[in-house]
Design goal:
This protein has 14 helices and twelve strands. It is α/β, with parallel strands linked by helices. A hairpin with a 5-residue loop joins β11 and β12. InterPro entries: Ergosterol_Biosynth_ERG27 (IPR051593), NAD(P)-bd_dom_sf (IPR036291).
Length: about 425
């Protein structure tokens, strides 16, 4: 919803999943900061966070309140007394959900729908990596011989194979791929169930569903015959490629039947809009490392940035710039960007000094906007530090991307309907 001249206070509600740490927490902090100084005074922010436990939820809300107080204190230094006005514009509340437990996701959806409060933005942030360690010889060799590229596109991570998220019993038919469920399917169901709260009306633009992808969403990591990546040791990368496919093809005529059913809306003008973001390479807790190795990772990322990589915000607060921009930018700005230059995967990027900006990311088979012949010509596009397996988009690869998008949309909708029936039992 864009700013209104109406003097009455309007509420802009943003739900962030996985808000207790890393990128999720930083996204919430950045939402608070940017909302207060970019949105009109007649608008207030309701920041709704989700975590997996009550204790984490209480702790996260407390830390966000502390961040809010720091922001207000800084504002008072420049404009004495302004904090009293700004403080009334932020409300923080929490919900619990386990995205690997579909019944928990359904219960959250029902609670929010029953409350009936409009939802303006859903940020699908929560997720897991599914890694068990590193191939140390490969890691050391690639870092020493090709630091910048290997720190951006690591090939030395070792993932678990076949990890599942049981849904209440030991029946294999009632199990789903763990990384697939946490990163994609749990959010997919939640977005479907919350879609009625995100419709456009006379006073509101369509709601925004913002999916968090990754720079590591390689085309070769995804196997359409193994949607849940149960036989793959790259389940994380597969889940992010699946996310790219779903969002980037979500407004094509060829997927309209599936997306209309998913968003529970027959009128295309009323449906929530789906957007795609990634934070670049940040030092977060998604990779569970001992403290010494965590600092080594931090150092490696800074060196990659100093060597000229535009994909190393390092700080998760800087990494949140793309998803927060998609959350708060005027709807007309986003619509113009994606209508003119095509649907994009929006990335958080920094220069060598850490100055952040939002740019388009090149996606295998899609390019920067789904158009054959695109070039990195300065229009928010970068080819610097390009993955070496990346190829320019051709007519054939663009068609293959769309066909694959159609297929995964159909299969995800089939899976949704199957699990909705099971959850009703």
């Amino acid at each position: 919803m864009e700013g209104s001249d109406d003097e009455q206070q309007s509420v802009y509600t943003v739900l962030v999943t996985g808000a207790n740490s890393g990128l999720g927490f930083s996204t919430c902090c950045r939402l608070i900061d940017e909302f207060l100084f970019t949105r009109p005074q007649t608008q207030s922010l309701h920041l709704l966070i989700t975590t997996r436990s009550a204790s984490k939820n209480k702790d996260t809300q407390s830390r966000l309140q502390q961040h809010l107080q720091k922001t207000l204190h800084k504002a008072d230094k420049s404009t004495p007394g302004i904090s009293k006005v700004l403080a009334s514009r932020i409300a923080i509340s929490g919900e619990q959900v386990d995205l690997c437990n579909l019944r928990s996701v359904k219960e959250l959806g029902e609670r929010l729908v029953n409350k009936g409060q409009r939802l303006d933005v859903l940020i699908c942030n929560a997720g897991i990596g599914g890694w068990k360690g590193l191939n140390w010889p490969s890691a050391i060799w690639s870092m020493m011989t090709d630091w910048k590229h290997s720190c951006t596109y690591p090939t030395y991570k070792l993932g678990f194979v076949g990890s599942v998220a049981p849904q209440g019993n030991e029946d294999k038919q009632q199990q789903l791929g763990e990384v697939f469920t946490a990163n994609v399917f749990g959010h997919y169901l939640l977005a479907h169930w919350l879609a009625p709260l995100m419709k456009a009306d006379v006073s509101n633009d369509p709601g925004r569903i913002i999916w968090i992808s990754s720079i590591e969403a390689y085309a070769h990591a995804f196997d359409a015959d193994d949607l849940q990546a149960l036989t793959s040791d790259a389940a994380y990368e597969s889940s992010k490629r699946l996310t790219d496919l779903l969002v980037l093809t979500s407004e094509l005529p060829s997927t309209a039947t599936s997306t209309a059913a998913f968003l529970d809306e027959s009128d295309d003008g009323q449906k929530p809009k789906m957007y795609l973001a990634h934070p670049g390479v940040c030092a977060t807790s998604i990779a569970d490392l001992p403290l010494v190795l965590w600092y080594a990772m931090l150092f490696a990322q800074y060196v990659a940035r100093w060597l000229g990589s535009p994909w190393h915000p390092v700080s998760s607060y800087l990494g949140a710039v793309s998803s927060v921009w998609l959350s708060l930018a005027p709807f007309s700005t986003l619509s113009n960007q994606e209508t003119t230059d095509g649907k994009a995967k929006w990335a958080s990027s920094t220069d060598v000094f850490g100055n952040e900006r939002v740019v388009r990311t090149e996606v295998g088979g899609w390019g920067w906007g789904g158009k054959v012949g695109e070039k990195a010509d300065g229009k928010m596009r970068l080819s610097a530090n390009r993955w070496r397996g990346q190829e320019d988009v051709t007519k054939e690869s663009r068609e293959e991307f769309e066909v694959l998008g159609q297929r995964v949309w159909r299969e995800m909708e089939d899976l949704r309907r199957t699990w909705e029936k099971r959850l009703r039992v």
